[in-house]
Amino acid sequence: MSFPSSSPRRALALVASGATCVGLLAAGLPSASAAPEPAPQAASSAATGKFLKLWSAEWMAGQKSFTTAQAQDLARRMSVIVAMRGKFTKDIAAMKAANPSLKVLAYRNASFGGQGYADSLYAKNKSGQKIYARKWPTTFLMNLSSPAWAAEVGKSCVELINVSKYDGCFLDVLGSGPLMGNYLSSMPVTNGKQWTHPQWIGWADDITVAAKKATGGKTVMGNGLGNGRRYFSTTMSSKGLVAGNDGMEPELFVREAHSPVGAYYSETNWKQDVDMMIDVQNKGSRVLSMTKLWTNASETQKNAWHKYALATFLMGSNGNSYFCFLRDKNAGASWGAHPFNQIDIGTPTGSYTKIGTGMYARNFTKGKVVVNVGKSSSGLRLTQGARTLDGARVSGSVTVAAHSAEIFQY
Asked: Does residue 110 lie within any of the structural domains?
């Protein structure tokens, strides 16, 4: 579920004013024999620039400060950086010189706030009491249905952009995840009726529209899609957030942050993540994929998950979306400097297809991306020699292990 992270900064709306995205290979096995299964058609790829684009959730796993050289280095790798107020203000000019197309967005929690607002701006439970996030008792759920709260968020975005000299605003916690589980101290009501997921999503979209209008049409992106399972849900769909945003983050892309390293989504849920990307892009927006490995993992396991998340992203991307993989919680995890993030796979020659039991592939002008979401290894025949992300040279028939991925570069 897509909730605020464990950082208190992210839970406070006020704080925002003052959080990149191992297949085992063996020769000699026959290729998979199942007939290709067509996938939803993706919108056309970006006309210019590198197909694989990165974004940095710098607020989520950042470091206290950057030198100008470090800031420029980050700027060269990223298409979008989301950061706290003033984090990069002194280096914005240098960062834009390093990457003129870079967008730096100011973080703003859209759903929770601290003390000091008018009482009418706070959400209330059936007893008329304020509702707090259990982890942070001084952090309160705001009245998302109030136009005044939407105006407050818009006003805050304007202030953040002007003070920080950033390009736009990033609205966190737009999704209705807090209504699930034990996140809130009590459930919010309006006119005696408990909030529903569709209501939350509708109000969150109104907040986004208000921020877009207040900022004069500057870039507004946000977090709240959750994952494909929620996006396509019949009872708690997050689709309604897409139209008002220039880009949306699914925070549970491919995995849940604290799940064991050996836990994988089912084939159905994995496919929903890819199809969610395609649907968002076909609606004219972008996906800011987020995969977090916030659990005990070796470097080998981190590399395997990085490859799995990246390959899944490439299955659905049209070249306009952005990838982020957080290998751990350490400062600098959002730098995206890992070699896997620097690949040039070319552009896709078609949509992703199912090529075998649990096996999916997508061809690119400079390679082939394969993901095995099944519980058993599966064979694949390469039409030409290739190099894996780990540097191995392979050709002919290869085997892709269960729950793994490989990106073959020609």
From this structure: yes
CATH number, domain containing residue 157: 3.20.20.70
Tell whether 12 is covered by a domain: yes
* Residue 332: per-residue pLDDT: 83
Closest CA to 332 of 66, 5, 6, 99: 66
What's the domain range around 166?
Answer: 8-23+49-343
Sign for the pseudo-dihedral over CA of 106, 110, 115, 120: positive
Tokens encoding 242: 């897409």
Write the pLDDT tens digit of every residue in 117-164: 999 999 999 999 999 999 989 999 999 999 999 999 999 999 999 999
The pLDDT value given to residue 326:
96
Q: What is the SS3 assignment for 290?
A: coil
CB 168 within 8 A of CB 214: no
CA distance 177 to 3: 5
**Residue 271 host element (H or E):** helix 267-282
**Total domains, the chain:** 1
Instruction: Report which DSSP code applies to 232.
Output: T
In the numeric block, which tokens belong to residue 244? Answer: 């008002």
CB 388 within 8 A of CB 406: yes
Evaluate whether residue 363 is within a structural domain.
Answer: no
Residues 206-220, buried b or exposed e (16+ Cβ, 10 A)?
A: bbbbbbbebbeebbb
pLDDT tens string 26-40? 322 223 323 334 444
Helix (H, G, I), strand (E, B) or coil at 298: coil
Q: Which residues in the chain show pLDDT less than 50?
A: 1-48
Q: What is the pLDDT of residue 117?
A: 97
Structural element, H or E, at residue 366:
none
Residue 189 counted as domain residue = yes
For residue 34, CA distances in Å to 47, 354, 356, 373 come to 33, 8, 5, 15
Element (H, E) at 323: strand 322-323
Helix pair angle (147-164, 197-214), 10° resolution: 40
Evaluate whether 403 touches 377 at the Cβ level (below 8 Å): no
The token pair at 69 is 């050289």
User: Reduced to 3 states, what is the DSSP secondary structure of residue 392?
Assistant: coil
Residues 6+ apart with CB under 8 A from 216: none
CA distance 76 to 96: 9
Q: What angle do CA 364, 281, 292 make, to 5 degrees?
A: 80
